[in-house]
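On clarity, I found the account of how folds are encoded harder to follow than it need be. Since the whole study asks how a given chain folds, the encoding of that fold should be made plain. For illustration, here is how one protein appears when written out as sequence plus structure tokens:

:::
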Amino acid sequence: MTVFLYTIIVLGAISFSAGVFLAFAAKKFEVKEDPLVKEVTAALPGANCGACGFPGCEGFAKEIIKGAAKADGCVPGRKSGVPEKIKAILENRPK
């Protein structure tokens, strides 16, 4: 009976310390994303076709925010007014 109790205590201590370590690591290595990227990505059609020259819609959105790409670079979204939506998002962003 005491061996069983010691096993439970040791495994509980290991589990608790592993949980504390994982919580610390999650906070330490947290990746902060720009909410503007999500807004611009939502305005894109989501085709992830690469016609803009970037890897997917999220990559294109990141380059638009950096200023490395123009808002009218999305070929499938031109007809649905994506460049105008992106320009409106960029004009309303906080400075």
